Amino acid sequence: MTTEELEKLTEESxxxxxxxxxxxxxxxxxxxxxxxKSAVFExxxxxxxxxxxxxxxTKWMNEHEFFTSPASTKFHGNFQxxxxxxxxxxxxxxxxxxxxxxxxxxxxxxAGQFTFTAEDVFVAAIAHDFCKAGFYSTSFKNxxxxxxxxxxxxxxxxxxxxxxxxxxxxxxxxxxxxxxxxLKKRSVLEAISRHMGFSDLTDxxxxxxxxxxxxxxxxxxxxxxxxxxxxxxx
Length: 234
What we know:
mainly alpha; two-stranded antiparallel ribbon; 2 strands
């Protein structure tokens, strides 16, 4: 990554952050799903250069419950639409942090192995949990209210018919359905595949895992994912 490429990424990242902040939902009392969708789509249209793939990318989200699915059953984003809120928040964190992290990485001994654009950061962040779109169903359990009366309370469960090739890897495959050109962007796919760190790897995958950490986008998406869920509860 050259100094000029970093400067371009920094400027484009600032533009995407400004779009997020224009649609800012953090101060809203309730999540507005249309505001979330508008922000994601406007940011996508701003940064994704291949307009055919951009249209397919946004269409995929519309057609696969991305804007209505929760992000988990009981942790961050465990509400209807939580997946899109969490993903947008990860993109926001990643775009804010990218200039500093990439600048620091360029001083390291492994600098020069990769190059990235603001589009790469945005796509990796939005797509990192694509595997959760349509992943859950709503069930009900009997609980008591404050007066001791029984009531049916909804909760999310994983669909019994779900089949997945692994959290990060499944998200990679789903991204490639709409953006096949990213098959040639291995460094971006690594960031999506390894965004869970050590917590979602087989023993074989843990071998030479440190090699993945030389990729600064892997580190960036991990940090953005954790800060979005831990600091903002999304």
